[in-house]
């Protein structure tokens, strides 16, 4: 398992982590098996947003004895209504559910405390206003009950505001192949990178639809992060391809696929043993016709390079530096074995690129920017 730093929090998290929603209504021994297997495989970040008491009790028992090996999240605003998931912006009610969380998970703090599931501008303003859930989260952080504050949502514009607010350490947002061209997504990722805000990718399989046999997919906002849309798959899509796309994106610290069994977890963890051919997702984006011509998706389908330039990484650092050229980005660029300045302008990369990226021009831009 590889780890990445969770933005400015400094917390080291597994690059592939685990969402737990698909473990609801499963027996204790099954949940124990999945959670303990994940931990033994190196997964240390777990997203926990459901407020159902019985489910919290089951997971709380699963994590007993492992708290010092895992990072746990909680979500302010996720409640239970009539036995089902609900959403509230009442700080007093949110606090009650948070205190219940600490009791049932047998812990006195959470690693990331999210402002849960905010999309529209009015709801964002409510969360961030004085007396809102942000103020509650900040108070809990001062009390040592939360290490970092996060924001989860499905709208690029509000998620970007959160990233740029200075108050949010972690943004959780849907990222997947099918949603590659969602308007505002690239700007959101760049904002997270520029402000050292960690990006946690949810819905890497688009709610499972990318892995289904059916060719037609209808995606809603919670699955794509954009307007509802219909797409057509032209061939099978694998978990490895989905995860490689997500982990290649600017600013992503970790991805949280939902897995309900050890078998599904193994399908995700197969990513670490997969070769370049198994990871390659470039043809899938072409088939979906959901990409911006000329925009690099960091797939490295353009390789091999005679100068041994990691073109995808150079382009990723260039995109991140466009918003703000930080010392960390300079250091990352300087550490590359070969840089944009090593480009011999042979054009072989551009001939192989499925997305019409002007690679030679971008190598020149990177050489000039990082000089």
Task: Chart the SSEs and their pairings.
Elements: E1 3-5, E2 12-14, E3 18-19, H1 28-40, E4 45-47, H2 53-63, E5 71-76, E6 78-81, E7 84-87, H3 91-104, E8 110-115, H4 121-128, H5 133-142, E9 146-152, H6 156-164, E10 170-174, H7 185-194, E11 198-202, E12 216-219, H8 221-224, E13 229-232, H9 239-247, E14 252-255, H10 262-269, H11 276-279, H12 282-288, H13 311-323, H14 327-334, H15 348-352, H16 359-369
Parallel strand pairs: 3-4, 4-5, 5-8, 8-9, 9-10, 10-11, 11-14
Antiparallel strand pairs: 1-2, 6-7, 12-13
Helix pairs in contact: 1-2, 6-7, 7-13, 13-16
Give a brief outline of the structure.
The protein is an alpha/beta fold and 371 residues long. 39% of the residues lie in helices and 16% in strands. Helix 1 packs across helix 2 and helix 13 crosses helix 16.
Descriptive tags:
371 residues; alpha/beta; TIM Barrel; 2 domains; two-stranded antiparallel sheet; 14 strands
Question: How would you describe what is shown here?
Answer:
By secondary structure, the protein is an alpha/beta fold. The chain is built from 16 helices and 14 strands. Helix 2 (53-63) links the parallel strand 4 (45-47) and strand 5. It is globular and about 60 Å long. The protein starts with a strand and ends with a helix. The model has no long low-confidence stretch (mean pLDDT 90).
CATH architecture of the largest domain: Alpha-Beta Barrel
User: How many structural domains are formed by the residues?
Assistant: 2
Topology, number of strands: 14
Output the radius of gyration. 21 Å
| Mean pLDDT value | 90
User: What distance separates the N and C termini?
Assistant: 34 Å
Total helical elements? 16
Query: What form results from the Cα inertia axes?
Result: globular
The major sheet is characterized as: 8 strands, parallel
Note the beta-strand portion: 15-25%
Q: Would you tell me which CATH topology of the largest domain applies? A: TIM Barrel
Strand line-up in the sheet with most strands: 3-4-5-8-9-10-11-14
Which ranges are low-confidence, i.e. pLDDT below 50, for 5 or more consecutive residues?
none
- Classify the helix fraction into a percent range: 25-40%
CATH class of the largest domain: Alpha Beta
Order of helices and strands: EEEHEHEEEHEHHEHEHEEHEHEHHHHHHH
Quick one: CATH superfamily of the largest domain? NADP-dependent oxidoreductase domain
Structural class: alpha/beta
């Amino acid at each position: 398992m590889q780890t990445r730093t969770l933005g400015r929090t400094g917390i080291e998290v597994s690059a592939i982590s685990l969402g737990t929603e698909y473990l609801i209504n499963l027996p204790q021994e099954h949940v124990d098996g999945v959670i303990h297997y994940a931990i033994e495989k190196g997964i240390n970040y777990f997203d926990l947003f459901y407020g159902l008491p019985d489910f919290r009790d089951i997971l709380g028992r699963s994590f007993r004895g492992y708290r010092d090996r895992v990072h746990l999240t909680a979500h302010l605003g996720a409640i239970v209504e009539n036995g089902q998931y609900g959403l509230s912006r009442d700080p007093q009610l949110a606090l009650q559910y948070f205190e219940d969380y600490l009791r049932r998970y047998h812990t006195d703090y959470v690693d990331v405390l999210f402002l849960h599931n905010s999309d529209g501008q009015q709801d964002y303003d409510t969360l961030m206003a004085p007396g809102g859930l942000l103020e509650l989260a900040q108070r809990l952080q001062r009390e040592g009950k939360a290490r970092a504050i996060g924001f989860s949502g499905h709208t690029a514009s509000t998620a970007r505001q959160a990233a740029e607010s200075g108050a949010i350490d972690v943004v959780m947002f849907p990222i997947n192949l099918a949603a590659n061209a969602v308007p505002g997504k690239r700007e959101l990722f760049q904002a997270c990178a520029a402000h050292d805000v960690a990006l946690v990718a949810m819905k890497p399989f688009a709610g499972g639809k990318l892995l289904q046999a059916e060719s037609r997919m209808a995606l809603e906002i919670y699955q794509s992060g954009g307007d509802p849309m219909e797409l057509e798959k032209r061939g099978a899509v694998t978990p490895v391809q989905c995860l490689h796309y997500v982990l290649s994106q600017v600013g992503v610290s970790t991805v949280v696929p939902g897995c309900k069994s050890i078998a599904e977890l193994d399908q995700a963890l197969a990513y670490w043993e997969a070769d370049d051919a198994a990871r390659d997702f470039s043809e899938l984006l072409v088939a979906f016709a959901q990409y911006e011509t000329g925009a690099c998706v960091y797939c490295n389908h353009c390789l091999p390079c005679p100068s041994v330039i990691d073109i995808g990484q150079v382009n990723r650092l260039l995109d991140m530096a466009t918003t703000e050229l930080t010392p960390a980005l300079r250091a990352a660029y300087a550490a590359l074995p070969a840089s944009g300045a090593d480009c011999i302008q042979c054009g072989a990369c551009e001939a192989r690129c499925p997305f019409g990226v002007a690679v030679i021009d971008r190598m020149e831009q990177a050489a000039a920017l990082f000089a």
